[in-house]
Amino acid sequence: MGERVCAVIVTYNRKALLKECLEAVLAQTRPPDHVLVVDNASTDGTPEMLQEEFPQVEVLRLPENQGGAGGFHEGMKRAYEQGFDWLWLMDDDTIPRAKALEALLEAARVFEKRLGRTALLASLVRWTDGSLHPMNTPTPHVSDGELLVEALEMRALPIRSASFVSLLVARWVVEAYGFPIKDYFIWNDDVEYTARILRREKGFWVPQSEVAHHTKKKYTPLHTSSPDRFYYEVRNKIWMLTKSQAWSP
């Protein structure tokens, strides 16, 4: 597989964080070949900021806010149609360290050589205080002892699901499994999508690739203070367990 990478960043009304995210993405030691910002109909001046400060970035402006699920669906679709080999997914409040993408691609090369093709690679995600962010800690896959030992020898961990906060997705994965489900709107769209893929394919958590997730608080969806967001957390968990094959044996 080639290494042409498109960074897909979904944003909604957070232009200051988006600016910081883009500066970090463009300053990577191995920059992405293309950057696509999916704007969920922001009303805070995001389009103007992007046009003035980041003219080299492609902007896909959606007609209405489709949530993270809709944003990643449309962004991945655009990047796939443009022929990129890897899609590097993140929210607008994700700030990658300088070697984040380089480390993911290097891991992909090593894993493919030793273990065969790799579907997904997830970064280590910290909160602003340097501790691990509980929202973005992947679910480990420990039932395959041989794979676990092989991965640990390479300073990685096999995973069963991951978040879209700095996730590298191979092109062939989109060909085989499609896109995230738009109807999820927010939360669990990434868990369902990655678990559906990793039910049959291999994915890894790569600690050498680090990003910071600049949420206001260090929380998980179950601890949100927003009734609307809590609704999506519960509804989507039920959908995932009853309508999806993601967690089937």
- What's the average pLDDT? 95
Segments where pLDDT lies below 50 for 5+ residues?
A: none
Largest sheet: 10 strands, mixed
How much strand?
Answer: 15-25%
Helices, by number, come to: 8
Tell me how many strands there are. Answer: 10
Specify Rg, calculated over alpha carbons.
17 Å
Distance between the termini: 29 Å
Question: What is the approximate shape?
Answer: globular
Note the run of SSEs as H and E.
EHEHEHEEHEEHEEHHEH
Structural class of the secondary elements? alpha/beta
Q: Which range best describes the helical content: under 10%, 10-25%, 25-40%, 40-55%, 55-70% or over 70%?
A: 25-40%
Question: Could you please describe the fold and organization of this structure?
Answer:
- The protein contains 8 helices and 10 strands.
- α1 (15-26) links the parallel β1 and β2.
- Helices cover 38% and strands 22% of the residues.
- With 249 residues, the protein is of the alpha/beta class.
- Strands 1, 2, 3, 4, 5, 6, 7, 8, 9 and 10 form a 10-stranded mixed β-sheet that branches.
- The relative contact order is 0.17.
